[in-house]
Each structure stands twice: as C-alpha cells, then as structure tokens.
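@channel sequence for tomorrow's demo:
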Amino acid sequence: MIPSGPAARTLKRVARPFLRPLRGSITWALQEGVLPLSVRQYLPWRWALEPFTIYGAGWKCRWFPTEFDAVGHQIFWSGLRRWEKETAPVILDQIRRSRCFIDIGANCGVYTVMGCVASPQTMAVAIEPVPGIFAALVSNVKRNHLLPRVTLLNLAIGESNGTVPFHEAEDATMGSFALDGYQGQNGRIIEVNCRTLDSIVAEARLAPDFLKIDVEGFTDAVLAGAGGTLASLRPRIVLEANPGDSCERINAILSEHGYTCQSITARGLEAHGTIVPQEKWPNWLCTPRI
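structure tokens (generated this afternoon):
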C-alpha cells in the first residue's frame, strides 16, 4: 500500500538526500513511463525548476526552466507521453520535413529547441512578444547551441506593423491581444512591437515551409497579415482554434488560399471541410492544395 498524508511527507523527507544523485535517472524513467507518475508525490517539486534533459525518439535536448515555465514543468514529470501528446508528434514530423520553420508564439521555445535538435537541417525563426518569456526562449536556444540556426524576435505577429497593447497573462502560456485577458486570464497590459508575417518574411528574405501558430485566440490576425506568404510560399501550418475564436475568418483566409484542414486527435489526423472549433481537440494541420 502506498503511504499518503503525513506518512508520505515523512517518506519524502527521509528519502530526499538519497534520491538527489538519481535525479537524472528518475526524470528519464518518468518521461519514458518506466516509473508511474504517482511517484511524483515522493519527489521534491522544485526538481522541475532545475535544468534537465528532454528525451525524444532518437534525440535529446537540455531544458532550462523558469518559475513560470508550466510547459517545462509538465515535460519534466511525464515527458512527451502526456504534454500535447497528440500534437507534439505532428509538429515534430512537420519540422523534420522543413527547411525553414517559423514558431509564432514560441513561449520559452520548447518546439523550437526540440525541433531543431531533432532536425539538424532545419533553420528556425522563434517569435515571442513578452520580454520575460523571450529571455527564457533566448536562454534555451543559446544553451542548446542552436543560435546559428535560430533567429529570435521579441515581437508579436498580427495584421499590421506598429506598437500595440498586449495582455501579459499571469499564466505565461496565455498572453494575447485580448486586453481583458484571453478566456478571463488575469494579467497586465504592456506595449509590444507588432509586425505582419509578410513583412518579416520579405525583410529577412525567408522561405518558410512550416508555421506553428499558437497565439491564444488571434490566429486570424496572424493569417490576415500573411496573405503574401500563404499565396507564394504555401507553408504547411499547425494552428490552434478554440471555441469562441474567430474561426469564420480563419476559414475564409485558408479557403481563399486553397488550404485543407485536418483535426489533430487521439485517433490521428481527421479531415474536415473547414475548421470546427473543439475544446478537446483545438489543434489543426492545414496544408495547401497542390
């Protein structure tokens, strides 16, 4: 029988000094499913705030989490078996097929770092508007020695160029253009630089063949400022569309440029005529018709 309550706390306190040298092996075992997630209750929660290795299929990278890095915390305890377990394999497969990947809403850079480690031929552009989160992104890219292949941009992507107000949410994964907070998130308003994707692509002479768009309810604004890129370069796209988002406008833009949509589900990719927002399966793979 597994101890709980005071007995579990006592066991954790007594075992901690002996477990510390095994931290690396334990996180590997947790990520690979060798140890059940239930053992987490006996381990120091602050372990997830220290650098650790992320293990993938035939690759591994280092991760340098911060206090606000909820994604890194999840990956520390269960790896890619639980965190975005349907979406992560699709995104990593698309990055492996890509020569130029643009990560729009990169947060602390987990897809940029994992993708560039798993795919050594891929160049990436990682874009994140919130300064504190951007600093964590820069740290993870630099400390994985990826800087020669990754361009880092501290700005938002939208449908116009200029300085705009932006909601920096208390949950670092939920910042957005929604000034009252996306889906009721608490936070504060900051000013950020905003550029259209078309202007970034033209200025840097990029040829992206894959885009990941995770911008908390404003995918339509990103696509509205990317018409030239969609028309001429035809990148594949993984995007998020939640109930309440501007999906009618997203569908109109994708339809105009001849894209098909597949929902990313536990059953695999499911084709749909248009994006239909679903709370359980919010991520979509959109590909241009040949």
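heads up for whoever presents: The longest helix spans residues 6-19.
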